[in-house]
Amino acid sequence: MDLYDGYMFFTIKKRRSEGTGAAPRGKKVKDEPSPTPSPCIGPPACNGAGNEVIKDPFCDPDNPKKVTFQDVSAAAYKIKDGIHHSPCIKSRMSSMLDMEIYFKKEFLQFTGSFKERGARYALSQLPKEQKAVGVIAASAGNHALALSYHGQSLGIPVTVVMPLIAPMMKVQACRSYGANVIIQGNDISESKVHAQKLGQENGCIYINGYDHPHILAGQGTMGLEIIEQVPDVDAVVIPVGGGGLIAGAALAIKNLKPSVKIIGVESERCASFSEAMKAGKPVRTEVSSTIADGLAVPTVGVNAFATAKDLIDKMVVVKEEYIALAILRLVELEKAIVEGAGATGLAAILEGLLPELEGKKVVVALCGGNIDTTALGRVIDRGLAADGRLIRFVVTVSDRPGGIAELTKLLADMGVSIKDIFHERAWLKTDIFSVQVKCVVEARDKAHSEELEAALRKRYDQVAWLPKYF
Question: Signal peptide span per the entry (predicted)?
Fold first, then answer.
């Protein structure tokens, strides 16, 4: 393919002329300095943390590559035998949200996310000589899983560099798919620097998980399926991180049905695509910890932005509590375990950010299901709190025998479940025969919690309803 013509000549052919060669098929990329400097894939730069970065020839800010509909169509044909045609099913939430919602269940792909589409296509498009050498990528999760799995399927060596914070379950899964896994870097930026250097030294192509042109084309096949499955769709809501999915999917959907509204959704903790839209170009954005960790990309892809910027009708930013609530709703009503990044589309609807969709037929992409099992319980608790079902309050009761028993009886009579209870006696300004009781309880719904508050205030003089979040 034309995309690789210059790259192949500059790296593999030149390396051979210099006598360095490339790693033979099946040989693992060594995680050690090369004895002699290898030719650089572009001028080095700085990532702002003192680390030298190698310019990615496939993601050049000075020459962004816009993906075409023909690219997406070619990808669909190429990957059709290796990718699950995920269902797009009407949700039982439709009536409660006053719109006809269909969930595109990409979390049902073998490795749990839409990333398989781009990974499969990118690997299949490698020149024959490069397939023997292999590829390298930096990822903490879904891209690493997808590349590892399809590399094994296609017989292409894959090396993934994962940061120290990567969940162990994902590290082990990549290894089980035959990938060479290297743990390096405190965050994904440091892992990327290391991966690019290793790729340069060993002749492996670096595959950017959200901006390589073949990745974008592969992700666009989801858009083709949506129009096939829900031909009269009015709007499609897509989570946005680096921009690869919305770029490819929007391109496919707008070409097949221009009237469809494309809506992108980001976490408030990392609104990098919204900032890029304001600036007219990708800009670095501050990132903080988010439930939607798969969307936490500081700078969106240059190719993704160039492809998507004129195709997106609206961008919205959701609060963390609504992402948690969306995960909870999917567990309870759809019997689906979806990660934070995958649930942000539904979160935008639950938060009321898309009132124009009322009465419309809407497809929401549930793009990933690889939530860290150690975090799932905490996320569900956050969702219960956002839903008004997990409540914290402080009440002052008598410290004489039967005082606390009276409180717990009131809670039991109300049908409330006590999750936690704590007594405070020393740091009070009330009389010494009083005790402050801090409670965390679970109610049936918001109306039930309001009934509880009314009953407590009627019985006790000092009741404080604590906020959901600090």
Answer: none
